[in-house]
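Sequence, please.
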């Protein structure tokens, strides 16, 4: 089974903790991602997901223009070492009810893996003739 270093996304998308939620939501839309790592003083301190925005801000009727990322983000950032297997990441996500994990090498965040990445991996493994996953996001 592959380790996470093989499937993790290395092009990390992040946002400052002091940014307005509306800016984060627009950035997620424009970048076509479901989560942004949250930075504070050159360190990742949490993650902001679409679910965070919906459950902790929009559903509560809060003003997305005046609410900050640090007020809504999930922290601490849940992480896993890059040498762990895809199955271990899947189990960790399931046990903790999360959809994203930071992937670390020697304690530093080097990538991000999502439930979607894991689904694509298992789809490819279950259909070895499939060179490129056919799941696409519109």
């Amino acid at each position: 089974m592959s380790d996470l270093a093989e499937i993790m996304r290395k092009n990390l998308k992040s946002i400052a903790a002091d940014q307005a939620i509306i800016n984060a939501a627009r950035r997620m839309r424009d970048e076509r991602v479901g989560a942004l790592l949250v930075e504070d003083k050159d360190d990742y301190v949490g993650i902001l997901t679409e679910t965070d925005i919906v459950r902790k801000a929009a559903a509560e009727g809060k003003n997305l223009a005046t609410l900050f990322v640090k007020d809504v983000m999930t922290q601490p950032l849940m992480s896993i070492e890059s040498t762990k297997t895809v199955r271990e990441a899947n189990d960790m996500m399931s046990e903790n009810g999360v959809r994203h994990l930071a992937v670390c090498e020697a304690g530093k965040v080097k990538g991000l893996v999502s439930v979607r990445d894991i689904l694509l991996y298992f789809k490819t493994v279950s259909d070895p003739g499939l060179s490129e996953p056919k799941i696409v996001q519109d």
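The chain has a mean pLDDT of 90.
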